[in-house]
Specification:
Blueprint (H helix, E strand, L loop, with lengths): L4 H9 L2 H10 L4 E2 H5 L6 H13 L3 E6 L2 E6 L2 H11 L2 H36 L1
Antiparallel strand pairs: 1-3, 2-3
């Protein structure tokens, strides 16, 4: 069953190790050994993660003499950004409603708090 590119990208991004690998590639091309350094796992395990990222089109691998180098590919991430952008207005509306509600609560608290201060002053 063929998997669409967006689903493959989301599946690859679902794993925190793969997201960390992509983050390391933001600063530029790196060798597989450099990518594996911060992870407490075997090289075959790192290679499996790299294969998933490569199949999703998120990285490109090349051979440079004895070194295998990886670099990030922006295309699939651009697709994710475009897909999520369609839903931005929903979150902005919800955040606007939350902001309105919080301002209402704050105003109510300030009003209530202000009354108490005046009441205490009268009692003195």
């Amino acid at each position: 069953m063929p998997v669409d590119r967006l689903s493959a990208t989301f599946a690859a991004l679902a794993d925190p190790t793969r997201r960390a690998i992509l983050a390391r590639l933001l600063s530029g091309e790196r060798s597989v050994t450099e990518l594996a350094e911060p992870f407490d796992m075997s090289m075959p395990a790192v290679s499996k993660h790299l294969r998933v990222l490569e199949r999703a089109g998120l990285i490109a691998r090349r051979r440079d003499a004895q070194w295998r180098r990886c670099q990030i590919e922006a295309g699939p991430l651009k697709d994710v950004a475009a897909w999520t952008e369609r839903y931005r207005h929903i979150w902005e509306e919800r955040l606007d409603r939350l902001d309105t509600y919080l301002q209402h609560v704050k105003a109510k608290e300030e009003k209530r708090h202000g009354r108490r201060k005046r009441g205490k002053q009268r009692q003195l």
